[in-house]
Amino acid sequence: MSFFKRIFSSEKKETLDKGLEKTKTTFFSKLSKAIVGKSKVDDDVLDNLEEILVSSDVGVDTTLKIITRIEKRVADDKYLGTSELNQILQEEIASLLSETNTGEATEFVIPVNKKPYVLMVVGVNGVGKTTTIGKLAYQFKKQGYKVVLGAADTFRAAAIDQLQIWADRVDVPIVRQNMGSDPASVAFDTLQSAVAQDADIVIIDTAGRLHNKINLMNELSKVKRVMQKVVADAPHDVLLVLDGSTGQNAFEQAKQFTAATEVTSLAVTKLDGTAKGGVVIGISDQFQIPVKYIGVGEGIEDLQVFNKYEFVDSFFK
C-alpha cells in the first residue's frame, strides 16, 4: 500500500528482505499457529500475539504498547478478522517506529553545515563496532565525502589493527597511536588531522568496556571535552552499535551505554543471522533513540541506512 514507500533500489530491498528472512519466517510460523481456527481477533488471539512479540525480542513494554493499540482498534471497529491482523500489525509497528525514527533517509548523508562532521562510535567488544565503522567509511567515501578514522579504542591492540585493515581496504586515512595511549589524545590528533586535511567526516572508534560504568562515563566525557578543543560542538552524533542477534542482551547494553553517555543514534548489526529482528522495534521504542543503520549481511554493501517503511515492509512481506 502507498503508506509503505518503495524507495530503496531493488538490490538493496532484496538484501533487506533476505536479511530479515529468519525473523520473518519464525514470527509468521508462530502467528499462523496462534490464529488457526480463529475468524476474529479476540482475547485469545491477543494473548498469543503478545507471547509471539515478546519471544521475537520486541520487549515486554513495547509489546504491551502494540497490543493496547490493537485492542483499541478492535474496540473501535467492533469486529476485526484475523485475516486483517497482519495489516493492522504492520500499520501499528510502522506508526510506533515513526515516533522515534522521523527521518526517511535512504542514502549515507551528513549535514552540510557541519565540517568536519564528527561521529563517535560506542559499543561493547564483539558487536561489530569496528566492522560497522569500516563499512560506514566505505559508504561515506562512495558518496564523495572525505573521511578520516580515529583509532581511540587503545585498550586492545586488535581493535587498532582491525581498524587499520579497514582503513587500508577502504583507502581512507587513519590516526592511531600505540596500545595503551590516552584515547582522548588520539581523538584530539584525529580531529586536528581532519581539519588540516579539510575532511568532511571523522569517525572515532572508542573502547567497548562495560565492566565499570563510572570509568567508561569518565573516559567518554574526557574524549568529548578534548575533541571540543578542536571542533567546538563535537561530537555531532554518538552512535551506539548493538548486536541484534543477542536479543535482550542488546537491551541491557543500550541501558548501560545510555546511562554512561548521551547516545543520539543506533546501529543494529547481524540481523541476517538471527530470528530476533524484533529487537530493532523494541530498542528504538524503549530508548526513544532513532535507529540510523542496520546490518543485514557480511558484505561491505550490507550495512544499510534504516528506513522504517522499508523495514516494516520487509518484515511483513
TrEMBL record:
PROSITE patterns: SRP54 (PS00300). The keyword Membrane applies. It is a peripheral membrane protein. Gene3D superfamilies: P-loop containing nucleotide triphosphate hydrolases, Signal recognition particle SRP54, nucleotide-binding domain. It is found in: Cell membrane; Cytoplasm. InterPro entries: AAA+_ATPase, P-loop_NTPase, Signal_recog_particl_SRP54_hlx, SR_rcpt_FtsY, SRP/SRP_N, SRP54_GTPase_dom, SRP54_N_sf. Keywords: Cell cycle, Cell division, Cell membrane, Cytoplasm, GTP-binding, Hydrolase, Membrane, Nucleotide-binding, Receptor. It catalyses: GTP + H2O = GDP + phosphate + H(+). One of its GO terms (biological process) is SRP-dependent cotranslational protein targeting to membrane. Pfam families: SRP54, SRP54_N. CDD domains: FtsY. GTP binds at residues 123-130, 205-209, 269-272. Its main location: membrane. The keyword Protein biosynthesis does not apply. Residues 290-303 form the SRP54-type proteins GTP-binding domain. Part of the signal recognition particle protein translocation system, which is composed of SRP and FtsY. HAMAP family: FtsY (MF_00920). Belongs to the GTP-binding SRP family. FtsY subfamily. NCBIfam families: ftsY. Involved in targeting and insertion of nascent membrane proteins into the cytoplasmic membrane. Acts as a receptor for the complex formed by the signal recognition particle (SRP) and the ribosome-nascent chain (RNC). This is Signal recognition particle receptor FtsY. It comes from Flavobacterium seoulense. The gene is ftsY.
